[in-house]
C-alpha cells in the first residue's frame, strides 16, 4: 500500500505517556531536503507510483525545516506529474498554521495522523498533553479537513481520574467530526516514560520492564487504573465496535468527505491496475449488494459524485478500509475478553460483563 521514508526524529512536546521523547529527544533533527528528495527519486526509479508514508512521529516538530522541505517536494512532484501521495503524523497544532497546511496540500499530502487521545480536557492535562487543550479539537479537525488533508486520529482510554463514559465521549467526538479512521487503545505505561516512573513510584505497575508489550489495541492496561479495569475494557470494546459498525462508518465517511477540500494539484491520470479493479469489485459486492448498507452505499456514491467529485476516488478507498476494521473489531473483542477472564475477581460487582457484538 505504501513505502516508508523518514525525514525527522524527535518531538518538542512532553506528553507523560509518550516514549518518543525518551527514545529520540525533544529537539527534532531532520534530513536535508536534498537527502529526502534523493530517497524519493530512488523509489521513483524503482517504479513506485503510490503512497509514501513519512514515518516521522511529528512531521511539524521542526516547522522551519519542514517548510524548507515542502517546496522541494512540490517542485519534484510537479516535474513528474505528482506520482506520489503522502501521509504522515503531526501534532494537532498543525491546524494553527495555514501556511504549513497549504504547503502540505500542494505537495500532495493526502492524510495526517493526529494524536488527539481524548476529548476530555482534564485527562489531557493529566497526561501533560496541553497542546491539545489550547483550541477546540473539533475545530482543529475541521480546519485540516477543509485544507484537503484527511485526518486519521489516535484515541486512548484509561487515564488517571477519567470519568465513566469516556468511550462514549470518544464515539461522540469521532461521529461529530466525521474522522474515518479513529484508532483506539487502552493506556500503556511504556518503559522509562514519565508515566512509567510515576506509576512505578506509586506501586501501580503490574508488569516488569523486561516483558512490557508496548502499545497494542488488544492489550489491557499494564498498571492499576483509578477506576475498575473491567469498566474501562468494556467501554473500549463497545466504542471500537460502535465506530466500525458498517452503517455508522459509512455515514461518518460520507459526512467527512462532503466537507473535504478539493485538491489544488494537477497530476497525470493513471490507468487502474488489476488490483485496483479487484478491490473496487469487492467493495461494490460487499457494501453495495450483499450487506444492509446497500442503500446507503449507492445513495452516498452518487451524492459524492455530484457534490464533491474530486474526492470520489478517495471516498471509495476509505470506504474499503472498513473491510479491515470489521474483522479487527472481532479480534479486539475476543482478545480483551480472554484477558479479562484471566484476571482475579477483584472488581466491584457492578462492573459490566463484556457483551458480544
Describe this structure in words.
The protein is of the alpha/beta class. The protein has one domain (2-257): Aldolase class I (TIM Barrel, Alpha-Beta Barrel), CATH 3.20.20.70. It has helices at residues 20-24, 33-45, 63-79, 98-106, 121-126, 137-146, 166-177, 194-201, 229-243, 246-258, 274-290, 294-307, 312-341; strands at residues 2-5, 8-9, 29-30, 51-54, 85-90, 109-117, 150-157, 182-186. It has a six-stranded parallel β-sheet with strand order 1-4-5-6-7-8. Helix 7 links the parallel strand 7 (150-157) and strand 8. Helix 2 (33-45) packs parallel to helix 3 (63-79). The chain is globular. The model has no long low-confidence stretch (mean pLDDT 92).
User: How many β-strand runs?
Assistant: 8
Radius of gyration: 21 Å
Helix content: 40-55%
Number of helices: 13
Largest sheet report: 6 strands, parallel
Overall mean pLDDT stands at: 92
List the helices and strands and how they pair.
Blueprint: E1 2-5, E2 8-9, H1 20-24, E3 29-30, H2 33-45, E4 51-54, H3 63-79, E5 85-90, H4 98-106, E6 109-117, H5 121-126, H6 137-146, E7 150-157, H7 166-177, E8 182-186, H8 194-201, H9 229-243, H10 246-258, H11 274-290, H12 294-307, H13 312-341
Parallel strand pairs: 1-4, 4-5, 5-6, 6-7, 7-8
Antiparallel strand pairs: 2-3
Amino acid at each position: 500500500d505504501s513505502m516508508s521514508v523518514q525525514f525527522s526524529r524527535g518531538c518538542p512536546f512532553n506528553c507523560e505517556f509518550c516514549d518518543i521523547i525518551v527514545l529520540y529527544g525533544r529537539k527534532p533533527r531532520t534530513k536535508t531536503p536534498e537527502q529526502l528528495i534523493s530517497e524519493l527519486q530512488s523509489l521513483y526509479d524503482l517504479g513506485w507510483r503510490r503512497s509514501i508514508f513519512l514515518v516521522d512521529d511529528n512531521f511539524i516538530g521542526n516547522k522551519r525545516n519542514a517548510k524548507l522541505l515542502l517546496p522541494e517536494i512540490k517542485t519534484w512532484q510537479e516535474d513528474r506529474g505528482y506520482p506520489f501521495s503522502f501521509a504522515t503524523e503531526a501534532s494537532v497544532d498543525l491546524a494553527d498554521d495555514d501556511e504549513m497546511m497549504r504547503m502540505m496540500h500542494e505537495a500532495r499530502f493526502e492524510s495526517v495522523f493526529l494524536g488527539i487521545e481524548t476529548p476530555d480536557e482534564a485527562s489531557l492535562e493529566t497526561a501533560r498533553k496541553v497542546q491539545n487543550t489550547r483550541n477546540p479539537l473539533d475545530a482543529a479537525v475541521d480546519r485540516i479537513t477543509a485544507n484537503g488533508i484527511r485526518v486519521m486520529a489516535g484515541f486512548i482510554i484509561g487515564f488517571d481520574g477519567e470519568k465513566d463514559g469516556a468511550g462514549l465521549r470518544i464515539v461522540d467526538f469521532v461521529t461529530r467530526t466525521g474522522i474515518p479512521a479513529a484508532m483506539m487503545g487502552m493506556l500503556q505505561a511504556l518503559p522509562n516514560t514519565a508515566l512509567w516512573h510515576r506509576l512505578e513510584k506509586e506501586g501501580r505497575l503490574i508488569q516488569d520492564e523486561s516483558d512490557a508489550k508496548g502499545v497494542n489495541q488488544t492489550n489491557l492496561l499494564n498498571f492499576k487504573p483509578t477506576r475498575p479495569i473491567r469498566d474501562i475494557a468494556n467501554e473500549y470494546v463497545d466504542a471500537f465496535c460502535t465506530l466500525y459498525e458498517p452503517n455508522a462508518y459509512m455515514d461518518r465517511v460520507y459526512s467527512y468527505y462532503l466537507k473535504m477540500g478539493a485538491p489544488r494539484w494537477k497530476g497525470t491520470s493513471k490507468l487502474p491496475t488489476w488490483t485496483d479493479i479487484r478491490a473496487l469489485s469487492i467493495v461494490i459486492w460487499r457494501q453495495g449488494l450483499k450487506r444492509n448498507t446497500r442503500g446507503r452505499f449507492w445513495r452516498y456514491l452518487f451524492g459524492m459524485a455530484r457534490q464533491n467529485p474530486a474526492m470520489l476516488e478517495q471516498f471509495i478507498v476509505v470506504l474499503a478500509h472498513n473491510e479491515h476494521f470489521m474483522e479487527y473489531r472481532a479480534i479486539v473483542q475476543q482478545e480483551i475478553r480472554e484477558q479479562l477472564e484471566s484476571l482475579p475477581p477483584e472488581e466491584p460487582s457492578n462492573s459490566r460483563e463484556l457483551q458480544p457484538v
